[in-house]
Design a protein that fits this description.
- This protein is mostly beta strands.
- The protein is 0% helix and 35% strand.
């Protein structure tokens, strides 16, 4: 490991895992998660030291995904899904039986959403919960929104909204001009932007303004593409400061419906009374007052 000298474009540290890495690193609390194509999973401190090394025994080309409770999910491209705790304890391992072809994401019910060449699959607690037949390959990561809608774009140009009820149901499908090979983007005005390989740019109104609050609802975890589980700020000004949203306080239950948390804390990390365990913090304002809410 090489120590750095300064912050002026010089190296802080380097650690050689001695194996190809195709997935992006994931940041969670003070740790960095990295999986290699030879089947090793590393938990590293931000200082560059290795905290934990696990043998997965399966090649991994995707980034690990992490839920709000700190559970880590690793998907190998040969169809193995592994659930691991923060300290390296394996909770479960599931063999899908087919190659996983896209980066996995998480929905609000605790399901990990993956795709093979002909199916979208939802897995929960080590078991397959739902599947949906795909008639064209999925080449991009699904996007899951706050009301648990799942959006996918296929190689044949079909763009779907799927709803996870008792079964995965197709709510609607748009046939775009060509193959969808890049990930869609969701704005806080409720517009989903989709691009195609022949240059089409599509703006599609949807019912949700924000990704699911699951920890990893989309590629790189959040709309800012930071790959950081702790980056739960939804409103960012151009200068990097938090933009406080306006709210109308009239005593109705929907007052805070449109306000996303500026901070999400891991559940169950407070000893003693569970009612003192802070899960999320919200801020808003109106013409006279600044408001804060905690849950």
């Amino acid at each position: 490991r090489d120590s750095a000298i300064s912050y002026k474009g010089e190296l802080l540290w380097k650690y050689d895992l001695k194996s190809p890495i195709y997935g992006s690193p994931v940041i969670a609390d003070d740790a960095i998660y990295v999986a290699t194509s030879t089947g090793d999973f590393f938990v590293m401190y931000k200082s560059g030291k290795v905290k934990l090394k696990l043998k997965i025994y399966n090649p991994v080309v995707f980034s690990p995904v992490v839920d709000r409770n700190g559970t880590i999910f690793i998907c190998s491209n040969n169809g193995i899904i592994i659930s691991i705790g923060e300290e390296g304890k394996e909770y479960w391992r599931l063999k899908i039986g087919k190659e996983i072809v896209t980066q996995p994401v998480l929905d609000n019910t605790g399901c990990i959403v993956i795709a093979t060449r002909d199916k979208l699959i939802l897995v929960q607690n080590g078991k397959i919960k739902n599947t949906y037949r795909l008639y064209s390959p999925l080449e991009t990561a699904p996007l899951v929104t706050e009301n648990n809608d799942i959006f996918i774009g296929l190689k044949d140009g079909a763009f779907y909204l799927l709803k996870n009820d008792k079964k995965l149901k197709n709510k609607w499908c748009l046939n775009l001009d060509s193959s969808i090979s890049s990930n869609s983007a969701l704005s806080d005005s409720g517009i989903l932007y989709v691009t195609t390989i022949l240059g089409g740019v599509y703006a599609i109104p949807v019912l949700s303004k924000y990704p699911a609050n699951s920890g990893w609802p989309m590629l790189y975890g959040n709309p800012r593409n930071t790959g950081n589980l702790n980056d739960n700020v939804k409103y960012i000004n151009a200068d990097g400061s938090i933009a406080i949203k306006n709210i109308k306080v009239d005593g109705k239950c929907f007052d805070w419906f449109d306000i996303q948390p500026i901070l999400v804390d891991k559940e169950g990390d407070t000893k003693g009374n569970k009612h003192t365990d802070l899960k999320a913090a919200y801020v808003a304002k109106d013409d006279k007052y600044f408001y804060a809410m905690f849950s």
